Fold this protein.
Amino acid sequence: MMKRYSDYPVATLKEYGYRDYSKMKPVNKVLKTILAYVLILGLYLSIIVIAIESFNSSTSMSRFAGFSLEWYPNILQEEDLMTAIAATFIVSLIATAIATILGTFFAIGLYAMNKRKRQQWMLLNNVPILNADIVTGFSLMLIFSFFNQFIKMVFVGLRGDWSLFGPTTLILAHLFFTFPYVVLNVMPKLKETDPNLMDAAMDLGVKPFKAITKVLIPAIKAGIFAGMLLAFTMSIDDFVISFFNSGELNVNLANGNQFIMNFDNLSVWIYGVLGKRNLSPSVYAFSTLLTIFTLVALIGYQMSKNKKDKGRVKVKK
Amino acid sequence: MKKLILAIAIMLIATAVVSCSSGPTLRLLNWGEYLNEDVIDAFEEEYGITIKQTVASSNELFYSKIVSNTTAYDLVIPSDYMVEKMVEEDLLLELDYSLIPNKDLVTYMAGVDDIYASMTATTLARTGETVDYSVYAVPYFWGTYGIIYNNRVDGLEEALNEYGWSVYFDAETYFPDASRGMYDVPQDAYATALIYLGENPNDYSQDLLDSAQTILQNAHFSQWADDALKRDVEAGNLDMAFAYTGDYLDRLYIQLDDGRTLEEVQADFNIYVPDPTIVFIDNMVIPYTATNLDAAHKFINFLLDPEIMALNAQSVGYAVPTEEAYDVIISYLDSEDSYLSSWAYANQTYYNKDREGTYYPMTSLPSTFVDDITTMVDAVKVSS
Amino acid sequence: MNSLYRRLAIPYQVWLVVLVFLPIMAVVLIAVSNLTTANFNLSDISFSLAHWNDLVENQSQVDGEYFNSYLTAFRNSFMYASITTIVSFIFGYFLAYQIKQSRIKNKFIILTIIILPMWSNLILRSEALRNIMQENNIIESILGFNILPSFAGTSYAVIIGLLLTYMPFMILPVYTALEKIDDALGEASLDLGLTPFKSFWKVTFPLSLKGVVSGSIMVFLPTFAGFAVPKILSNGTILLIGNVIETKFTYKILNIGSLLAMLVLFVILGSILILTRFDKEGETLL
Amino acid sequence: MATKKPLIELIHVTKTYDEEHVVNDVNLAIYPNEFVTLLGPSGCGKTTTLRMIAGFVQPDDGEIIINGKLFNNLPPYARPIHTVFQRYALFPHLDVFDNVAFGLNNRSWDYLLNFFGEEKVTAEAKELANGKDVSKRLIHKVISKKIESSVKEALALVKLSGYENRRIDQISGGQQQRVALARALVNKPQILLLDEPLAALDLKLRQNMQYELKEMQRELGITFVFVTHDQEEAMTMSDRIVVMKDGLIQQIGTPKSIYNEPINRYVAQFIGESNIIPGTYIKKDLVNFLGVDFACMGYTFDKGESVDVVIRPEDFDVVELDKAKLIGKVTFSLFKGVHNELEVEIGDTTLLLHTYESYEIGQSIGISIDPYEIHMMKVEVNE
């Protein structure tokens, strides 16, 4: 109870026509907190199970035979898994990088349009996000096979087994659904910037495109990062669209040999393996590593940021 | 951003270094974990040919990979009906047996010959043409389908041995509380239903389709899946499921690896192979896309060697197609290595070369039939 | 802004037109023609409504009752997508609101924590969920008891699976919308005599509607047309339209598959139209 | 005024954020029908004080008394207080009418009956019923009508009649400000809190609003608690000004007394421009600064005590050199319209002067000061 200084009576909610729920408040708060944590736990439930599987000494998915870390180093031993991981990262990183860089410029271009036009293009921009994966994947495959045939018709000299399908189609397909996420996340930040910002920069003698890199991009950094994160997330977990559009990397090497690499990404590979055989728990181990690594990086980032912020306040004082 | 590009570059270089290969390559389109690493090493060492394997999970994927010609595969290992389809569509090259001398040293098991004969017969019935499939294909592994069951359910084993297919399909009469799983391949479901009816599983008519639908509905399947079936029976979450015998052996070997005995595993879950049953045979064939014919023939020849075939079988768990390879496996019965002796024992139990039975390989049905069967199976699922 | 910048969008405009319209046209073409494989043979193409008739006339009989299994699959899709959307709206809104109340400043962190599970493979995640919904599972083998009732294969399992997979798509747009609401508005309504409860319904909720619509569509569409999660968690016993389409494509029954895909496209188109009424530029999409 | 009962009392009110006293032991009484302004630079705790009165912020210590009752634990919605927010906080999803009606529309039945007078409402309902039974629906109808007319009245008061159906983003900043005002006034609050409501308006509009606000306050008889950092605004409108700095109240008084008799250097400097010159209190009515003795009035200090002398720039008289008490050299001169601003150097002290005549730079001028224009403050030890 607060220290009293005067002897005025205490005002109550009742006399102002409201019911007093303050007694329920702590209970309410506890319930809400519990529910919130249960929900977050729910989102991570499958991740936790995957982590447990990765520590299982047996390959059985339903019986925990004992704690073991053997599957972690084993990731490196499994060539197919490593190939799939490499393909996944190559595709996702390239797609994310291109989508982030070009997508930012595209967003700037769309932002420069008048409102009505921009809204029309944004509508189209949302189609790849909202379209069903299976429709996107299948229809892109149709178009790519058409391009494939076409290219083969035009360039008759191509090796018989030449195919557009492979990293090229996979990256193109991934770009198809990652661009919109970048554009979508950059656009609101562009709207938040001062419309005179660019004019000010150019007024100071900066060339138009330099003004973008020096002035605009730093101002919309947060949007670009969010777009990049989402693009990467969508890309790394994509299954259906990749399923229809994957193939092999097939390069003629200088010594006359061919370099072939299966470019099925992890999802497609898992789907293929799962239908036929047991997955080795190394896949779980990899999944767990990825989650833990990201979480740790995130916490580290936040902690370093907190420190910096504190330092800044002190300087201000 | 610079860091990102750097990271990509490093990844690219790293993967290039990891998977860079020199010398001729054999591009093999195969099922997952269907080729013993030791065999690959032996082959690569002997011939200096690098094997690049691509894994696909269904015959249909094999087919589409060949048809779409996205990669030029030198050797594919499709199953029986897909071989029929591929031959029919002229996707396969004839084998040059002069490059496969080992073929003369081995004898195919009786069952394998039956299967090839049956394939020829179905093709004849359908197209009026007589095709000798051994011209295009050399058997890789073969296997039966069976009913994998949860042996912790009292009386199930005895009932299966006594009444066979009925226990699995007639859910109202036998073990109404038991959970049943079916392979999630429409044609497999259709074929098993026909076998239960005493029909040839490769026949097709509207009446048969309707009867099959009734049978499948009455089985009240609680699960339609692929790989999950065997794992669920193993864990005791499912009581009966249609499965490859090889799938059972696969789980069996894993449990043996974990230190359990054959009897213990069989007491948990076992497989019953009905008669008649469906069989499959996976075959080495050379698709028209092949660029390295020499390597493909060498590989086929290499695998026909009984020792190599037995070695390959060690990690796979399906039946070897030649009597010579079978004998090599059986010779391990008295091995001191308990794993090898169990393996030999399992082969003797589940793949005995003297086993008599009627085996039906499944043929490739015309796409309109497949469409109808798929729709029928979807209707069964929807109505459950 | 400089009109020069407008030129930056031109490549993207071409890209969007080519890769949005052409593929959809191709699907429509296959749906209403006699083309059968991915290899076009445009010389002897002809228009055909046969697939549509197949679709409409499809009849299956169970216990004397006739039904169209495509229609049932569509109905299933609607039902599961609606339930998932409603439930994830309730919980997702709640969670987004709690995060907003918690005053965590860094949106990047929230974004990452919510979407991090998506970095693990969807099939693995669904299998993991299915695993622990079974009677004998890995957690049971450790703890000796089950944390979830064993309802693998039931519609509950499917809904829980869909919910846990797609709820982030509800949380993020709602959070974005909530974050954009000026705190002063809530204070103003309290100041004008509204209790916090009433203030929420009169101010916060209407203003977050944009995010709710976006989130609902982001949850509804993938659940409506998806197939992996329902397939795994229902043990293959519950068919959504996505499962039917997947089967058709797998077995190369392209015409009917495309026709069904076209019908799904109509649903998606409708959703996009709804979305544009509330959120013209999709600002609250992910 | 002292005999009146205060409407709001703040007793030892303290608020701490991050170990920093944002509001530090504030004691303040606000009386009915008073226009009180909290004045200070940003970060001085004036807004926090206002928010504690409104109920958005809980004090860490001390009491907030409204109408003779302790209100610390009551949420904002239960307080007979309304606020006009700095950036108006209008509801973007509602039009002008619904914004203004928002408070009344969401009140309980009993509250509204009481607000419009139960007897009046039933009487009107009876009239409408035409002899039939008065149903609850009918009363509801009457109340709705009453709300409508109240809203229209309020909009008329802020001169926005006819804008009812406009969307919030369709009206100008000044109009938004008026809507915010109407939204608060329509509820007939006893106390209206205004948090820098004019800050976002341009100069002309701001000056107009200052007069209008003051008028309204006088006419409606509502107590206004006004927060601003603009001393001119405070001077124009307020009955009393509370000058704050670093969470502490520096001085409370009428605009005039604060201007003329700043209690310390800070207040003197914050309120208008002033010259603060160190001096010595010699004896009653005599003070010495800049080496010269000046007659002064009304201050009592210890004899010989050091004091700060405050002289407003307009209070200097420029006189002929021979009559001058001080002579200085003009170092800077700027024409400001009404007056000239001069900087005059006397020794090493620079004084700021406002004169009506202009003087050249370099020119020597004589200065004298009337005794009543000389203000003195205690010297602050800390500074």
User: Anything to note?
Assistant: The interface with chain C takes residues 58, 60, 64, 67-68, 181, 184, 186, 213, 217, 221-225, 228, 232, 235-237, 367, 370-371, 374-376, 378-379, 381-384 of chain B (CB under 8 Å). The longest strand of chain B covers residues 138-150. Chain B has two domains: 7-142+281-350, 143-278+359-383.
